[in-house]
Structures are given as structure tokens and as C-alpha cells.
Design brief:
The chain is an alpha+beta fold. Helices cover 36% and strands 25% of the residues. It has helices at 8-13, 19-32, 35-42, 46-60, 76-100, 116-120, 124-133, 150-153, 240-248, 258-266, 296-308, and strands spanning 65-67, 72-74, 108-114, 137-143, 157-161, 169-183, 206-208, 215-220, 226-230, 235-237, 254-257, 271-273, 277-289, 324-325, 328-329. The strands form four sheets. Strands 3, 4, 5, 6, 8, 9, 11, 12 and 13 form a nine-stranded mixed beta sheet that branches. The protein has a two-stranded antiparallel ribbon with strand order 1-2. It has a two-stranded parallel ribbon with strand order 7-10. A hairpin with a 2-residue loop joins strand 14 (324-325) and strand 15 (328-329). Helix 3 crosses helix 4 and helix 7 crosses helix 11 (296-308). The protein starts with 7 loop residues before the first helix and ends with a strand. Mean pLDDT is 86; it is low at 1-17 and 326-330.
Amino acid sequence: MKQAAATPAAAASLAGVDRIELMQTFVRIVEAGNLSAAAQQLGTSQPTVSRRLQALERSLGLKLLQRSTHVMKLTEDGERCFAHAKALLDDWRAMEADLRGAHDAPRGTLRVLVPHAFGQEQLIAPLVKYLREYPEVSVEWLLHDRRPDFIAEGIDCAIQVGAVDDPSVVAIHLAEVPRIVVAAPDLLPGGTVPEHASALRDLPWVALRTYYQREVSLTRVPDGVVERFAIHPRMGTDSLYALRSAALAGLGAAVASAWAVEADLRQGRLRHLAPAWQAAPLPVYLVYPHARFYPARLRRFLDAMRAALPTLAGMRAPGGDGWALSGRLA
């Protein structure tokens, strides 16, 4: 049932209300699923979000949401309003971008989801550089080893290691993570580093369950020859840090991301086994949802990550070959 049209007094009380803000709040409520989550994403309180929703309903003379203790559901009018509000907000942002031009200053908050290990180590330096270059931007740096739910969590973009299989997102291939076989020196018979992948079959192993569990596949860089063999890992883990710690302790050989073990190799705590052989590299993507408008803070972040990632230690540009340590193929 439709509400009565707004009274003159109510209309006067809304004279100073920003209708765009009301629609932004309504869209956020619907996408977040409840008022509390919307308030958190908007950086305000639940009562404020509730008042904005009520003000929008009064101004339209319509009931947009049906709410009970546990359920929130769009009314028929609310569904139409949501579709129109989304289109209007996209047009508004596109107009702002066009009027401001390509040189608008990045500002506001960027919410970024990044892998746990990668986000604590490699990505901090380019993040700091980005924030220093754009002082009006703040970043919420969220560490999780999972795929993002952009709408429900209010995520602007994500750094993703591994294949992207979601057709609803934009995925920019930024770099690759070379993966090599390493082990503690004490694990090697006589301290001799095996040169051929087949010599690794009989070693004890630890496994990174995200990418390999019972089989290791290695490719010889110069000619593309592939060697596969089964393993029976002493330990399996989903943590790159735990894998590295187990390898350092001599529990077994491991296929590790080159960036995570480069310092250990330089200082002799780990040795690079079968140096001409590597596991398939992991692609690194910047992922974000399709939209008609992308704010300057996101566009500049993409530029910063695209420039920085291929140059980081233990990384390489997409399609690169080999992995260099001290100026040679290690």
C-alpha cells in the first residue's frame, strides 16, 4: 500500500536534504542487505541510515522496504526505485567525471581486499607510495585469502593471486609470481643441490594445499620439458608463511613463491633445487566490478599497481621466463 504524498511541512523539512545522498544510502542498504552493514560501509550510524531511508520514503510518498526483526525485503515500488537509483547514480558519477576531466584529484576511501601473505609483504611498499602521492585518499587494507564479495562488503577492488573465473568482474593481469623448489641445506644428501627435477622424487615434502597436494609438476625453463611426480607430504598447509617455516626447519622440500623465499636464498637458509626447473607461475590480477564510472582513486591505484608489481623482488611481468637472483637464473 502506498504512503500518502509528502505534506508541505514534510517537504519543507526536506528542502535541505541531499537527494543524491538519500539514494546512495538506499542503494547501499539494498546491496549490503541490512541497515547495520550499510551504516558500517558508509562510515555512519544505523539511526542515521534509518532516518535517510525514512526521508526518501517520505519524499517519494512510497514504501520502499518491508522490514521485520530478521528479514528485509524490497517492495514492488522499492524494486523500481532501486533500478532507477542505480542508473541515476551511475549517470551522476559519469557527469562528475566528465566535468572534472581526467585530472580530477583522487580522494575518499578505497577498500581493497588482498591475499594475507602478499598483502603484508610485497604490496606494502607500492601502497605507501600511492598514499604519499595522493594525500586525500585513505585505504582500508583487508587481508583475506578468498574471493571478494564486492557488493555485500563494499569492496572497491581486490588483488587476486591465481586464475579469475568470475565473468562479472574486470580482471587486469598485473604480474606473475614465479614458483621454485627450495629446501633447507640439511635436507640435501652431502649438501649437493640436485640439478634435475627427477632427483627430487625421493625427498620428503611439504605441500601448499591451495596449489599442490599430492603431485608436483615442474617445467624446464630453457626448453619446456615437463617432469611430474607424486609426493606424500609430511605436512600440508594453506599458509605460505607456514610452508616457508616448515621448509626452513628442514621438514621437507617445498614449491614456494620466489618472492617469499628470496631473502632466505640470499642468506643461505634455503637452497634452490633443480634451478632450471620451475612450477607454473601464479598470475596476479587487480579485480573490480564492471561499472559505468570508476573514481579517480581506483583508476590511480590501478596505475600504481600496474607499474609497481612487475618490478618487485621475486616477481616478473606477465609472460616472462625464468627467475633471476643476483643477476643470474637461480
